[in-house]
């Protein structure tokens, strides 16, 4: 396990923090029928400026228009999203604290067995807001320009091709391992603490490949500082129309980063339903513009989001167990 994360978890154990005991119930004045009577906080477990933060601010503005109260984004980075997750788990389940959850919700439990919370026990799904596909980006000087050429290069005796990702527990990092399994290669994973330094090292030629989101690499791709050999969506993206999917190139791989809203366990179902309905109406309004062409907006109901998270957790837990992956 990551040393900093292990120390952080250790402090929680020493402090005797208990996450299964539940938060205080909402008072009579906080009846679901009167919600929202004040501003609602959306906790983002990342620093400002990244794609997660952008999606949170995009939806917070539209939820405020729809529901008549401010939705305020609060960034709580740290310990691989655990700091932000903890804040929401411990919040009152009154509808005034929500989590902008991301794909690591589905990957962390398999890699970090001692998490101080349990997603299914401590949080409830509200709405799957959408998904962003992943791409394999390369430095323009890298000799492979198609997926087939990349696989051929990686299978050569003595090949030592490397790929960067935003983190060992990131969906991008694990999708790189899934790709290795499917095409029988051993491209070496170099996890970073975030996407920016990973991309910088690929552009600088220090690492061969980057597994990153469409949002992360789009600007550098358009500036021709990065190439892309495949995209992990089911269909080609309007933002990368010339980049073929993995399936087009003979590899059965579909994967994505996802973003959704969750709430503390015990949040009244009526409030969960109102937020979910508002998210659905926002997506149906299709008012996001061309700047978000790479993002597949969904706005699901809570049950569908819960089923999707279960399927994602099964996918990544199975991969971690099959390959014996560990976070060092």
Number of strands: 10
Cα end-to-end separation:
5 Å
How many separate domains? 2
- What is the H level of CATH, i.e. the homologous superfamily of the largest domain? Bordetella uptake gene, domain 1
Mean pLDDT: 89
Q: Any idea of the CATH class of the largest domain? A: Alpha Beta
**Largest sheet properties:** 10 strands, mixed
Low-confidence stretches: 5-23
Alpha-carbon Rg, integer: 20 Å
Instruction: Quickly count the helices.
Output: 11
* CATH architecture designation of the largest domain: 3-Layer(aba) Sandwich
The CATH topology of the largest domain turns out to be D-Maltodextrin-Binding Protein, domain 2
Shape: globular
Percent strand: 15-25%
Q: Structural class, from helix and strand content?
A: alpha/beta
Helix content: 25-40%
Helix and strand pattern: HEHEHEHHEHEHEHEHEEHEH
InterPro entries: BUG (IPR005064), Bug_dom1 (IPR042100)
Protein name: Tripartite tricarboxylate transporter family receptor
Keywords: Receptor, Signal
Family: Belongs to the UPF0065 (bug) family.
């Amino acid at each position: 396990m990551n040393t900093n994360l292990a120390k952080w978890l250790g402090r929680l154990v020493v402090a005797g923090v208990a996450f299964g005991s539940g938060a205080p119930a909402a008072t009579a004045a906080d009846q679901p029928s009167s919600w929202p009577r004040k501003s609602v906080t959306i906790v983002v477990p990342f620093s400002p400026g990244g794609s997660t933060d952008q999606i949170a601010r995009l939806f917070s503005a539209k939820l405020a228009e729809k529901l008549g109260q401010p939705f305020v984004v609060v960034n709580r980075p740290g310990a691989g999203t655990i700091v932000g997750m903890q804040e929401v788990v411990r919040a009152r389940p009154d509808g005034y604290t929500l989590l902008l959850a991301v794909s690591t919700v589905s990957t962390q439990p398999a890699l970090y067995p001692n998490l101080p919370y349990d997603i299914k026990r401590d949080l409830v799904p509200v709405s799957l807001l959408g998904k962003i596909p992943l791409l394999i980006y390369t430095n323009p000087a890298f000799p492979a320009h198609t997926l087939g050429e990349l696989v051929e290069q990686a299978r050569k005796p003595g090949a030592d091709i490397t790929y960067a990702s935003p983190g060992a527990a990131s969906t991008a990092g694990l999708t790189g391992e899934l790709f290795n399994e499917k095409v029988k290669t051993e491209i070496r994973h170099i996890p970073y603490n975030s996407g920016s330094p990973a991309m910088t090292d690929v552009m600088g030629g220090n690492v061969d490949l980057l597994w990153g989101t469409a949002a992360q690499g789009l600007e550098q791709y358009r500036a021709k500082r990065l190439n892309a050999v495949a995209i992990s969506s089911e269909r080609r993206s309007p933002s990368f129309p010339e980049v073929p999917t993995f399936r087009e190139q003979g590899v059965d791989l579909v994967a994505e980063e996802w973003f959704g809203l969750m709430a503390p366990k015990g949040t009244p179902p009526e409030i969960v339903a109102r937020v979910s309905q508002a998210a659905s109406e926002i997506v149906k309004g299709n008012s996001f513009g061309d700047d978000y062409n790479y993002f597949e907006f969904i706005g699901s109901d809570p049950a569908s989001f819960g089923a999707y998270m279960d399927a994602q957790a099964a996918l990544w837990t199975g991969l971690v167990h099959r390959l014996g992956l560990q976070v060092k």
